[in-house]
Amino acid sequence: MIEPRAPAPPGSPPPWDGPRGPDPAPAPARLPVRPGTGRFLVLAGVFVCAACGLVYELELVALASYLMGDSVTQASVVLSVMVFAMGIGSLAAKRLRRLGAAGFGAIETALALVGGCSAMVLYAVFAWTGDWGGLWVQGPRFLLVAFSLAIGLLIGAEVPLLMELIQRIRRQDAGGAVADLFAADYTGSLVGGLAFPFLLLPFFGQLEGALLTGTVNAVVGAALVLGLFRRDLSRRARWLLLVANVVVVGLLASAAVLVDDFERAARHAVYGPDVRVAEQTAVQEVVLVGGTGGRPLDLYLDGRLRVAGSDERRYHETLVHPAMAGTHARVLILGGGDGLAAREVLRHPGVRRVDLVELDPRLVTLGRRDPGLSALNEHAYADPRLRVRTDDAFGRLRLAPVAEYDVVISDLPDPRLTASTKLYSQEFYGLARRVLAPGGRLVVHAGPTSARPSRFWTVESTLRAAGLRTAAYRVRGPGTAPGTHADTGTGTGTDAGTAAGHAPADWGFVLAARTPPVPRLDPAGPRPGTLTPDTLDRAVRDAAATRVRDLPPSTLVHPRY
């Protein structure tokens, strides 16, 4: 006989009655197709949504790098915030699993709207406020983090809901379902990652590419839910989801239609009304402003002021002429596709050959053919002594013969821009030293000494680490240049990516050679209009007053800018 069990004391756990079975399986979905077909369609939707999610991620990194520079920092911020948010979103979506189909549809609609519009909103704030400096809570920097957080939350919320939908079609072990889901997800990420640089960016641009991605995201998400799981939704839920997707697709399509007008208006807000040329080349965005009707020509590369026609002569004369005091029959110019450094070099009658290495062939074409830019460089490209090589400066130095040049002029973008950091490394200067003839000289624009003294003197320290002796000098900048969004790329702007609206306080240069160089002017050379022996002597003293000692050199594997 089985004796009755005594009642448990209050607050004690219930008695154990043996092992429990698994949690109740979700109710099977009522599909309009066979389960195998339905499963395939869900995984196809995972594939597309994953591709769209990675495009949003890359779009934020690319736009932030373009507008703020320093792609390593921007990528680190976007990716770390987004991955963190994905974890939070995945946890939060556990509460929506009972509403798997409706929840997934709502998330995809929101993701399409947020991701599709993110690039346009960020660029609009940059264009009309110009506030990319200061604290992280200011302007577009806050928006960058906010968009990364929102997109990451929505992407992370997809995973538990998709797992729920897959299990409702056909119940299987969790490991197998996760493997199928992640295989589709990672394959879609691969396609999205390749489509962004090779398809979306070159053919549609950053703004239209993001809008197109959002439209695809919305259409596929709505088709999956309303087509495959419509029987699991109430009539009200179906209509709400349909209306929401129609509105989102309508907004994205309208923005795509107006994107050209928007870009023109934003470009005028950034550069002023006199934009003559605005092109996205294979390397960078090139914008020419003015240059006709008496207005000085300004050249912007990737949104940063590289040439200000009102004061570029002071910069280029100071860069070139001290290096030309000595033998200068063979000259190598690294960068300088605008032809302005070449103009100053070709003024010296002793020059027999000038090799100009420029990565962007379109910039060279503009320097040769654009009426404003070619007039500014005094038609330097028509001089038979000038030869152009479209190549990476690092690669060109590796292939150049030993002792090939008497003078090497480095007219390159700011070292703080990640793509240019290798061109300010000890290895790069070691290659430059190798191609210098005995008695040859290398001159480098190293940025402003007053605003960024540590960066400037790191360049000087790196040159010394490459076996060169150095002499630094600086000249004061022209003062204020209202309405510019500037960079230190050629010495005509402020810190990378800031919209300060001011020209630099000074331009810093480093002259280097195997023996201690002395910055001076060639007595037999042309007379610069803005530089005299007295101002050059003062420039040496001014630079020495800003010296920062004992800075380690920058290398390829340990950049220090």
From TrEMBL:
<feature type="binding site">
    <location>
        <position position="316"/>
    </location>
    <ligand>
        <name>spermidine</name>
    </ligand>
</feature>
<comment type="subunit">
    <text>Homodimer or homotetramer.</text>
</comment>
<dbReference type="InterPro" id="IPR030373">
    <property type="entry name" value="PABS_CS"/>
</dbReference>
<feature type="transmembrane region" description="Helical">
    <location>
        <begin position="40"/>
        <end position="66"/>
    </location>
</feature>
<dbReference type="InterPro" id="IPR001045">
    <property type="entry name" value="Spermi_synthase"/>
</dbReference>
<feature type="binding site">
    <location>
        <position position="338"/>
    </location>
    <ligand>
        <name>spermidine</name>
    </ligand>
</feature>
<feature type="transmembrane region" description="Helical">
    <location>
        <begin position="210"/>
        <end position="229"/>
    </location>
</feature>
<comment type="similarity">
    <text>Belongs to the spermidine/spermine synthase family.</text>
</comment>
<feature type="binding site">
    <location>
        <begin position="392"/>
        <end position="393"/>
    </location>
    <ligand>
        <name>S-methyl-5'-thioadenosine</name>
    </ligand>
</feature>
<feature type="active site" description="Proton acceptor">
    <location>
        <position position="411"/>
    </location>
</feature>
<dbReference type="InterPro" id="IPR036259">
    <property type="entry name" value="MFS_trans_sf"/>
</dbReference>
<dbReference type="Pfam" id="PF01564">
    <property type="entry name" value="Spermine_synth"/>
</dbReference>
<keyword id="KW-0745">Spermidine biosynthesis</keyword>
<keyword id="KW-0812">Transmembrane</keyword>
<keyword id="KW-0620">Polyamine biosynthesis</keyword>
<dbReference type="InterPro" id="IPR030374">
    <property type="entry name" value="PABS"/>
</dbReference>
<feature type="transmembrane region" description="Helical">
    <location>
        <begin position="105"/>
        <end position="130"/>
    </location>
</feature>
<feature type="transmembrane region" description="Helical">
    <location>
        <begin position="142"/>
        <end position="162"/>
    </location>
</feature>
<dbReference type="InterPro" id="IPR029063">
    <property type="entry name" value="SAM-dependent_MTases_sf"/>
</dbReference>
<feature type="transmembrane region" description="Helical">
    <location>
        <begin position="183"/>
        <end position="204"/>
    </location>
</feature>
<keyword id="KW-0808">Transferase</keyword>
<keyword id="KW-1133">Transmembrane helix</keyword>
<feature type="transmembrane region" description="Helical">
    <location>
        <begin position="72"/>
        <end position="93"/>
    </location>
</feature>
<feature type="domain" description="PABS">
    <location>
        <begin position="256"/>
        <end position="502"/>
    </location>
</feature>
<protein>
    <recommendedName>
        <fullName>Polyamine aminopropyltransferase</fullName>
        <ecNumber>2.5.1.16</ecNumber>
    </recommendedName>
</protein>
<feature type="binding site">
    <location>
        <position position="358"/>
    </location>
    <ligand>
        <name>S-methyl-5'-thioadenosine</name>
    </ligand>
</feature>
<comment type="pathway">
    <text>Amine and polyamine biosynthesis; spermidine biosynthesis; spermidine from putrescine: step 1/1.</text>
</comment>
<keyword id="KW-0472">Membrane</keyword>
<feature type="region of interest" description="Disordered">
    <location>
        <begin position="1"/>
        <end position="29"/>
    </location>
</feature>
<comment type="function">
    <text>Catalyzes the irreversible transfer of a propylamine group from the amino donor S-adenosylmethioninamine (decarboxy-AdoMet) to putrescine (1,4-diaminobutane) to yield spermidine.</text>
</comment>
<feature type="transmembrane region" description="Helical">
    <location>
        <begin position="241"/>
        <end position="259"/>
    </location>
</feature>
<feature type="binding site">
    <location>
        <position position="284"/>
    </location>
    <ligand>
        <name>S-methyl-5'-thioadenosine</name>
    </ligand>
</feature>
<keyword id="KW-1003">Cell membrane</keyword>
